[in-house]
Amino acid sequence: VGLAQVFFSLNFREKRATLLIFILYTITIITAGLLNPFLTVPPEMTPSVNISLFVVNLLWISGFAFVFILSFISQNIKLEHMETERIKELDDAKTRLYTNIAHEFRTPLTIITGMTDLMRNDPGNWLNQGTDKIDRNAGILLTLVNQMLDLSKLESEAMSVRMIRSDINPYIRSVIELFRSAAASLKITLNYLPSKKDLVVDYDPDKLMQIISNLISNALKFTQSGGVIEVKTALTDNGFFEIRVSDNGTGIPESHLPFIFDRFYRVEINDERVSTGSGLGLALTKELVKLLDGTIAVESLFGEGTEFTVTLPVTESAGLQEGPGLHEIKRKIAGYIVHPVRREQRSQPARHDHHEKPMLLIVEDNDDVIMYLMTFLGKDYDVIVAVNGEEGMTKALEQVPDIILSDIMMPVMDGLEMLERIKNDLRTSHIPIVLLTAKADIASRLKGLDRGADAYIAKPFGREELQVHLKALIAQRKRLQERYAVIGQLVLTKEKDFQFEDSFMHKVRDIMIANMSDESFDIQRLCSGMAMSRTQVYRKFRSLTDKTITEYLRSLRLHTAKELLIRSNITVAAAAYKTGFKNVSHFSRAFTQEFGINPSSVIRLPLTGHYGMLSKMIGTQRKTDTAHFL
Ligand code: ATP
Ligand code: MG
Fold this sequence. Notes:
The chain has 630 residues and is an alpha/beta fold. 53% of the residues lie in helices and 11% in strands. It contains 22 helices and 12 strands. It has helices spanning 2-10, 15-35, 47-121, 123-155, 168-177, 180-185, 205-221, 281-291, 326-333, 367-377, 389-399, 415-423, 443-446, 463-484, 496-514, 523-530, 534-545, 549-567, 572-578, 584-595, 599-602, 612-620; strands at residues 164-167, 189-193, 200-203, 228-235, 240-247, 295-301, 305-313, 359-363, 382-386, 403-407, 433-437, 455-458. The strands form 3 sheets. It has a 5-stranded mixed β-sheet. Helix 18 (549-567) packs across helix 22. Bound molecules: adenosine-5'-triphosphate (ATP) and magnesium ion. Adenosine-5'-triphosphate binds at residues 214, 218-219, 221-222, 247, 249-252, 260, 265-267, 277-283, 306.
C-alpha cells in the first residue's frame, strides 16, 4: 500500500512530496522489520489469508507501476516528436531567413556588378551615374551588414553608449530631412512636430539616428502614396521624453503584433505589402532602445495605421556639445532610405503590330535593376515594365509580349505566382518566362508548380548570359511555329508544353471552320468567339504560327476548297461559294497562287491528304465538334 502511494504521488509532479512519501514508506518498512520479533500475528491471519493478501497487494501495485511506466514512455515519445517538429520549424525559419538575406544582398550586388560592366564598356557615358549607383548600393549592403553585426554586438552586451548633450529637436529634424525626397517621390507626406520647448538632454546620436531611421523607413515601406507620416517629440510628466512615429498605412494585424520585434520576423500576408526586408529593423531598434534604458511600444490597427512610441529617460549629465553634422548622418543613413519605384519615369514605347523587335516585359520592383536591364536590352527588344507580379500579369494580358523577364521576390504578387497564372491562362500560356532568382529560394516552392519557368538566372547575373538566354527562348518559338503553321491535321499530344497551345489552335480552327462559308467572317468575330481581345488573339496567333490570322484563314479556305473539288462533284463556283469566296475569279486567282494550279484542273486530281473529313463536314453544313478529327 505504501509503495502504491509513492507511485500515485508521481502524478502530481511534486518531487518533494514523492520523496517525502517514499521516505515515510521506507521508515515504515524498516520499523516493521525491526519490530517483527515483538509483534504477534493475529490468529485470523492464517498463512493462506496472508498469501492471498500478499498476491492481491502485489498485483495492484505492479499494475499501477506498469500503467505509470507506459504513460511515461508515451509521454516521452510525444515530447520527442514535438522536439523534432520544433527543430524542423526552426530549420524552415532559417532557410527562409537565408533566402531573404541572400535576396537582400544579391539585388545590390547585381547593380554594382552591372554598373562596373557598363562603366568599363562606355566610361564616357556611365562614369558619373555608375559611381553614384555603386555608392548607393554599397551603402545599402553596408547598412545591412552593420545591422547584423550590431544585433550580435547588442546581444553580447558589447555595445557602448556615447552620450552628448544638446537640443534634440534640430538633430531629429536633420535626420528626418534625409527621408524627405524619398517620401516625396512616394507621394507620402512626412511631418515633423517637435516639442514646444527645447529638449536639451543627453542622447546618443548614433543610436537615436538608427532608431528613428528604422521607424521612418518602415512607415515609408508600409504606407501607400497619398499617406501621411508624422514624427513627434514631447516631454512627458514623469521625466521621460518620447518620440512617436505614426503612419496611416497598412497597419499590422493584431495576431502579428507581439512578434514584430522578434529578429527576422516579417508579417507575411498576401496583400499589398512590400516583400523586401530582412526583419532585422525592429529587433535592432528594440535592442537599441533597451540599451538606452528606454522602452518601445506599438499600437496598430490593421488597415488603419501604426504608431510606434519610443520613451527614453531624461538625463543631463553629459558635456554640452553640438550634434553631429549633416554629412556624417547622411553617410550612415544611406541604407535605410527606401528607393521608391518611380513609375511615371518609365518610358513605355508605342506598340505596333508589325514590329520587328520582339516585345519584352520586365517585371521587377527595383528601379536600379530595371534601369540596368534597359540599357542593354532596349536595343534588341521593345521593353515594357511592370513593378510587381500583379501589374506584370495585367500587362502580359493586355500586350501579350513575346517574352517575360521577372524577379521572384516582389510586393503584391511574387514572380512564382505570376508565373503560374500566366502559364495557366490560355491567352498567355505560350509566352516564355525567364526568372531572376536568388537561387536558394526556388527549389522548394517550385515543386507545386505544373509548368515551370523556361529559364532561371541567378542574381547577380552577367549581361551576356541573360542575352543568350533570351535569344535562345525567342528562337525556340520556331518549335511551336513548326507545329502550328501547318494548315492540315493537328495531332493531339499529352505533352504539358503543348496542351494549352493545342486547345487554343483547336478553338481558333473550330470557329474558322464553322464560319467558312461566311464571307464577312473576320478577326473581330473570331475574337468574340474566343472571348479574347483582338491584341490577345492576334499576338498569340502570330507567335504560334508566324502567320497573320488573315493569311491563315485564307489558306484554310483554299485548302478546304481544294478538298471539296477533289472529293465531291462540285463546280468551282460552288466550292468558292462554300468556302467564303463570293467572287469566282478572285477565288481562282488566289487558288492558283496558293497551289500553283488552276482550280478546275484539280477535280481530276487523285485523292490526297487529310481533308476528306473537312470537306464532308463543310458539305453537309454540320457544325459539330471538330476536335476529334483535327
Ligand atoms: P528591415 O527593417 O530589416 O529591412 P522589415 O522592415 O521587414 O525589414 P522590421 O523593421 O523588423 O523588418 O519590421 C517587422 C515587420 O513589422 C515588417 O515586416 C512589417 O510587416 C511590420 N511593420 C513594421 N513597421 C510597420 C508599419 N509602420 N506599418 C505596417 N507594418 C509594419
Ligand atoms: Mg524595417
